[in-house]
Design brief:
By secondary structure, the chain is of the alpha/beta class. It contains 8 helices and 8 strands. Helix 6 links the parallel strand 2 and strand 3. The chain starts with a strand and ends in a 9-residue tail after the last strand. The model has no long low-confidence stretch (mean pLDDT 87). This is Haloacid dehalogenase-like hydrolase.
Length: 205
């Protein structure tokens, strides 16, 4: 049986939000105008008021990638992550990931960020990345299915493993379902401190 450990990316393994930081990076590269920032601020307001769901929010937030084909986004992602890594990553988690890999434990990063720019993490660490899947059509990115958050993370992991597995540990800055699906789920608070979540029955996926 495969032994697996899962890390969330944003504000967990990576100390910042890649969604926001990659947006800033693309704006710098493409010299975007103020109107794009105002449109995105409006999306944040709608999402915070729960007037739109997370999938709709992500799909529209990432409109700043409009007209940039996947191969160019992947090129920007390589540049971006090579700037951010390892300075803005948690050193203890990086050490743990490398140790787990040497001991034959499979490590996943499962994130709500689009795979088109998060997948490059596989080049920097001995991990497999599962993120929100998209298709590029009519010069824009459309989410395939739903955003990779909450219960969708568990479904994607099961789909990828294709067999029985033992989820030893999971780490996230949100008390999401995958923490309760693991033998030990760790919640990372705003101060960067880890807390073991109390076990409950995981949701059926």
């Amino acid at each position: 049986m495969k032994k697996i450990i899962v890390y969330d990316l944003n504000q967990t393994l990576y100390k910042k939000s890649s969604k926001d930081e990659f947006f800033k990076f693309i704006c710098y590269k493409k010299d975007y105008k103020l109107i794009h920032s105002l449109q995105l601020a409006w999306m944040y307001i709608l999402y915070s008021l729960k007037l739109i769901n997370k999938t709709y929010f992500k799909e529209n937030f990432y409109n700043y990638l409009k007209g940039i084909p996947p191969h160019k986004v992947e090129k920007f992602a390589k540049q971006f992550w090579n700037i951010e890594f390892p300075e803005y990553f948690r050193e203890d988690m990086i050490r743990d990931i490398e140790t787990h890999s040497r001991n034959g434990i499979e490590v996943y990063i499962i994130t709500g960020g689009f795979e088109v720019y998060t997948k490059y993490m596989e080049e920097l660490l001995p991990v497999k990345v599962l993120g929100t899947l998209t298709k590029y059509e009519n010069d824009n990115y459309r989410i395939e299915g739903v955003a990779c958050n909450n219960e969708e993370k568990i479904r994607r992991l099961k789909e990828d493993v294709k067999g029985e597995y033992e989820l030893l540990e999971a780490y996230s800055d949100d008390k999401e379902e995958i923490l309760y699906h693991a033998q030990k789920g760790y919640y990372l608070d705003e101060n960067g401190d880890l807390h073991l979540v109390q076990k409950k029955e995981p949701a059926e996926i």
